[in-house]
Amino acid sequence: MNKELMTKKTISLSKITQKIEDSILIVLTAALVIFAILQLVLSLVGMGITWFDSLLKYLVLWIGMFAASVATTNRKHIKIDIVGHWTKGRIKTALNLAINFFAAVICITLFILSIIYIVTIEYPSTDPAPFLNIPRWVLILCIPISFCLMSIKFSIYSVTGIRSLVRNEEYPKEAQLNETQLSEAK
After folding, report:
1. Nearest to 64 by CA among 105, 21, 25, 100
2. How far apart, in whole angstroms, are the C-alpha atoms of residue 85 and residue 141?
3. To the nearest whole percent, how much of the chain has pLDDT over 70?
């Protein structure tokens, strides 16, 4: 398989993943707004549904976790950059590589710990389901899923940093694959 074909497939997979994440975020946000308005209207007439409050809490959790993943894709995540503004060239590339590698390690660690938590604490729990008999471990699956997605993205950014460092190039401002990188691969 040649390099150009692999790059095209990677870009295609990246775009598909981004569209899926965006769609999930849109659906969850729409559901949050609809259920919140519905709960408000029903409670005003004295017919509030008790499990709507729990549903809204878990929707906020899912939205927050998927929004963090989307922010990572768009490189809009929270980033503390103390010395990055004053560095250039290979030093800046090495710094970005270290930051992305560290973020990948943290996300992988949180992914593993959240899986361990779900398997050891939530899955065997005999606590009643928060609503509609959906076990709580299912409702918090967004945590390991989003940390897994973010760890993959930060790992890709780290590989991009290694490639830039080896080629003696400046680290790209947008580390996600795009059409410019496809044309460079030719």
Report:
1. 25
2. 37
3. 80
Closest to 63 (Cα-Cα) out of 22, 96, 95, 106: 22
Look up the pTM and report it: 0.81
The tokens describing 139, both together, are: 């409702």
Phi, psi of 168 (to 5 degrees): 60, 45
How far is the C-alpha of 26 from the C-alpha of 60, rounded, in Å?
12
Which sign, positive or negative, has the C-alpha torsion 33, 35, 36, 40? Answer: positive
- The secondary structure of 15-65 as a DSSP string is HHHHHHHHHHHHHHHHHHHHHHHHHHHHHHTT---HHHHHHHHHHHHHHHH
Q: What letter would DSSP give residue 126?
A: -
pLDDT, greater one: 163 or 27 = 27
Can you tell me the distance from the alpha carbon of 123 to that of 109, in angstroms, rounded to the nearest whole number? 20
Query: pLDDT digit string (tens) for 135-149?
Result: 999 999 999 999 999
**H-type alpha helices, the chain:** 3-44, 50-73, 89-117, 136-139, 142-166, 179-185
Lookup: tokens for 73: 């894709």
CA quadruple 35, 38, 42, 47: dihedral sign: negative
Token pair of 45 as six digits = 């007439």
* Alpha-carbon span 74 to 71, nearest angstrom: 5
